[in-house]
Amino acid sequence: MPDPFQSLLGIGDATAQRDVPLANCTTWKVGGPAMFMMRAGSRRAVSELLQVTGDLGLPLLVLGRGSNILVSDRGFAGVVLRLEGGLATAGADGDVLKAGGGALLDSVVVEAYRSLLCGLEFVFGIPGTVGGAVMMNAGAFSRSTSDVLAEARTVAPGGDERHYEAFDGKYRQPLVPEGEIVTEVAFRLSAGSAKSIRERMDESRDRRKATQPWGVSTAGSVFKNPPGAHAGKLIDECGLKGRSVGGAMVSKKHANFIINQGGASARDIKELMDLVAGEVRSRFDVQLEPEVQLVGFEEE
Ligand SMILES: Cc1cc2nc3c(=O)[nH]c(=O)nc-3n(C[C@H](O)[C@H](O)[C@H](O)COP(=O)(O)OP(=O)(O)OC[C@H]3O[C@@H](n4cnc5c(N)ncnc54)[C@H](O)[C@@H]3O)c2cc1C
To answer: Which of 13, 122, 125, 127 could make an SS bond with 143 (beta carbons 3.0 to 4.6 A apart)?
Structure first.
């Protein structure tokens, strides 16, 4: 069988690499290698790539900032795609802010601020990308990505381009069909003053710093809040703050965060997640569901 890498070379403006460690691409700083890593800066290249991976039967994972994902120590036996260049920029057009799926949320908020557009400040300090925010319906302080999302363009498996203008915003559920790649979006915002936008950005970041571990390796909230409850509170009431497995520890500041204290493996983190979920289940009869996306654990 021909080497699939040869088919990945020469796709539009995309670049291809082999055996790329994913620990450098996730905020938990764990995860084995991607068999192949592609970086693409145009929708056309993404479309071509999806045709090729479809033809070859190669699994594909699109990675944003890797701030809500746990990749196993074995890594990913397929193509990891990252969006960059023209698919990672943001710019205003009237009261609409257009952004690429690979744009960092903080840079999008800063662009809105420069354009005197308000409404996105709640994501300031969330260390993810626009694509990740659309797939997770990322939110904070009672606001969600779906509140401001006006349009999304995607590429579906096989390479077809899609366009969406209506979104069913549910808690931490994807706003476009799973498996599609978010290449560009438009946020509908409103005019605001530089002073008030700046104040809300600062407030958003300050509230995070006050309530969450800051400047350490985490993936944000590990579990979704079960209906009518807070995962962090349930975990705290089980006395699990500070509990560790290998190099992974339940944060003493926010019980729904797991910190890589240095040298944790993905297995350490997964075992700690299982331990936490087990304790909450036996004490409260509540099954916690991971918010973080698990990759490469299927056969373990
Ligand atoms: C310190 C910290 C604080 C956080 N606070 C919050 C918070 O307040 N609220 C909140 O909601 N989240 C929070 N998070 C979690 C995380 O930042 C968000 O879920 C974010 O939206 C994930 O974006 P990402 O680019 O890192 O996605 P990734 O982790 O890279 O990917 C997450 C999922 O989205 C998919 N994906 C990524 N990009 C695309 C794309 N272009 N097209 C299609 N699918 C894509 C991936 O395949 C994966 O399934 C926090 C995380 C950290 C580390």
So the answer is: 122
Please indicate whether residue 64, judged by its CB atom, sits closer than 6 Å to ligand 1.
yes
**Would the CB of 103 count as within 6 Å of ligand 1?**
no
**Beta carbons within 8 Å of 231's beta carbon, 6+ residues apart:** 221, 222, 223, 224, 225, 255, 256, 280, 288
CATH number reported for the structural domain that contains residue 48 in this entry: 3.30.43.10
* Amino acid occupying residue 86: G
CATH of the domain at 244: 3.90.78.10
In three-state secondary structure terms, 231 is helix
Is the CB of 33 inside a 6 Å radius of any atom of ligand 1?
no
Cα 63 to middle of ligand 1, angstroms: 9
Residue 1, pLDDT above cutoff 80: no
- Of 230, 78, 43, nearest to 154 by C-alpha is 43
299 — pLDDT class (breaks 50, 70, 90): low
* Structure-block tokens of residue 122: 């709640």
Q: How many CB atoms lie within 10 A of CB 137?
A: 20
Alpha helices by DSSP H, listed for the chain, are 4-8, 43-56, 105-114, 130-136, 145-148, 194-211, 231-237, 266-284
Statement to judge: residues 72 and 117 lie in one domain: no
Q: Are residues 207 and 93 in the same domain?
A: yes
Residue 2 has pLDDT above 80, yes or no: no
Q: Over the stretch 251-287, which tens digit does the pLDDT of each residue have? A: 999 999 999 999 999 999 999 999 999 999 999 999 9
